[in-house]
Amino acid sequence: MVEENHPQRIDREGGVQEHKSPSLQMEVRDPVIIRDKDEMRQWSRYMRAQGKTIGLVPTMGYLHEGHLSLLREVHKHTHLTVVSIYVNPGQFSPSEDLSTYPSDIHGDINKLKSVPGGVDVVFNPHNLYDYGNSSGEREREVKREKEGGGLVSCLEERGLGHETWVRVVRLEKGMCGNSRPVFFRGVATVVAKLFNIVEPDVAMFGKKDYQQWRIIRRMVRDLDFSIKVIGSEIVRDDDGLALSSRNVHLSPEDRAKALSINQSLFKAKYAAEKGQTSCRELKSSVIQAIQEAGGRIDYAEIVDQENLEPMEEIKGGVVFCVAAWFGKVRLIDNMEINV
Ligand code: AMP
Question: What is the pLDDT of residues 277-295, one digit of tens each?
Answer without folding.
Answer: 999 999 999 999 999 999 9
